[in-house]
Amino acid sequence: MAADDARIDEPTGRAGPIARFHAFRRDKPHIFVLLTMMLAALAMMEPRIWVVLTISGLAMGAMVFLMASGMTLTFGLMNVLNLAHGAFISLGAFAGASVLLWLSTQANQPSLWTNLIAILPAFCFALLVAGLLGLVFERLIIRPVYGDHLKQILVTVGGSIIIMELIQVVWGPNELPVPRPDALKGAVFLPEWLPVAGGIALEKYRLIAVVLGLAIYGLLSWIIERTRVGILIRAGVESREMVEIQGYRIRLLFLGVFIAGSALAGLGGTLWAMYREIITAHMGDELMISVIVVIILGGLGSIKGCFYGSVLVGLINLYVGYLEPRLAAVATVALMVAVLMWRPQGLIPVIKL
Amino acid sequence: MSEALLSLTRVCADIDQYHILHGVDLAVPKGELTMLLGRNGAGKSTTLRTIMGLTTVTGGDIRFQGQPITGQSTPRIVRRGIAFVPENMGIFSLLTVRENMVLAAIGGTMDPARLEWIVDLFPPLKRFWDKPAGNLSGGQKQMLAIARAIIEPRELLLIDEPTKGLAPAIIDDLADAFEQLKRQQVTILLVEQNFNFSRRLGQSAAVMNDGRVVWSGSMTELAQDDNLQHQLLGLGMGEHQ
Prior knowledge:
The complex is a heterodimer of chains A (353) and B (241).
Chain A lengths: L16 H11 L1 H16 L2 H32 L6 H18 L1 H4 L4 H31 L6 H23 L4 E2 L9 E3 L11 E3 H23 L1 H11 L1 H6 L4 H27 L1 E2 L3 H16 L4 H21 L4 H15 L11
Antiparallel strand pairs in A: 1-4, 2-3
Helix pairs in contact in A: 1-2, 2-13, 3-8, 3-11, 3-12, 3-13, 4-6, 4-7, 4-11, 4-12, 6-11, 8-9, 12-13, 12-14, 13-14
Chain B lengths: L3 E12 L2 E12 L3 E6 L5 H8 L4 E9 L2 E2 L5 H6 L2 E4 L11 H8 L7 H10 L2 H4 L10 H13 L5 E5 L7 H16 L3 E5 L3 H7 L2 E6 L2 E7 H6 L1 H8 L8
Parallel strand pairs in B: 3-8, 3-9, 6-7, 7-8
Antiparallel strand pairs in B: 1-2, 1-4, 4-5, 9-10
Helix pairs in contact in B: 3-6
């Protein structure tokens, strides 16, 4: 067959360093912003402090990523603005904390393996409770308002208030202290022979949060990029009708994604609860600002964008919090504004608005 | 004419508040390529979308293999064995060619022999197999759209204006591919504006006007009767030579 009229751009010739820099900035905007921020911070503080803040920022980013990844998927695939996502975070935190309190004997042992007897059920219970709530929420509250953002905002804010009030009914109106398992307390020291960072104390829990965040990011990326369900999700982001024309029930896919997104919010809530060691019913609302910034900054519907957005938000919080604490609160939003002025679609958009 | 695989009886359909189909009667014979012709706005694309459950049916009956499918969900209709290639081709442009094909194989896996036959039919697909489908040219996208529809054996293919906006050389390639499908006795209902293409491929034909089928018969009969073409399709003498 003679049809050979594809127009796939092939690089031609050698590019100079300036052209290569522009190409890098255009093709890898997330890496460009991340490196710029890290280098700028390094120039403004002692290297040892920079290492500590960077690892802490990565840990915060990892936790925010878990909470935000579900929302970017539901927004990206289903075009649903679920402002009750924060309530799922709170519920997950309370569910996980309840298991930790119930298994406090195991949580208070110095052995990590004994601690895991409390931690793993806490994670599983948070995933289960938040996922089940997601199932009920999608059926009762979201389903009647698909395609109407204004109604989505109204009903999900209403749903959020109800969930948070129910949390107070079940767990009481006061703050709930959460015991961090013994093996996750304390710090590890970097070896003395390391240049610059030698002897620095790093909080164990933050390191674990980074590892867990990276693991979940890897798992989600693998599902989205490599599995049939992932291909379906990406296809659904492009055209829901065409997914149905291929023979798949998009509603079922929506439901599955919503449940998974809610469960991830619950898991993120439990991680956050162990990090802060004290939780309230409204903690999710406070985190929603970071979550919304992350999904807009990263680009709607993109897991990769969500991951880098979370890391950027975590880092800027810590860097600015150290350099000028009074500006810490506005730094996150300022970062989002700056990125959106440069790239209105976010760093790695999946959906073109 | 052989028995009808698909039949529409007095089908009426709306899109939003507009009444588009006003009682469509159509029979698609098994194992034949049927052309659905008509001027712009006659209701051809809406007829295909209505068969696929993508519009609101307000009256009439659609039967596939003798079973009613009126009002059923699109995925259910697809799983009965009907594949649909819409006018805009519906390619997932962010997915690779391979991923587009993987999704189209609703059984879960692609039959290697069938895949080989398809890439022989449409060689550019092999060359751009792991490239984003959005990078393909218009003709290649159409090939991918048809390849998706035939990656699994289907009872019926509904294809909406496959030649729209394509260069003549590509249209010839597509016509060759349809000839092969015809030889395999795949049942096809093809909406088309290009009369030369229709005349070359069609075995039976139906002509629509104002949301109704106003003529149906054999393609040979329509192709040989200039007056009928002029009356039904507004074609001038020699316009399709």
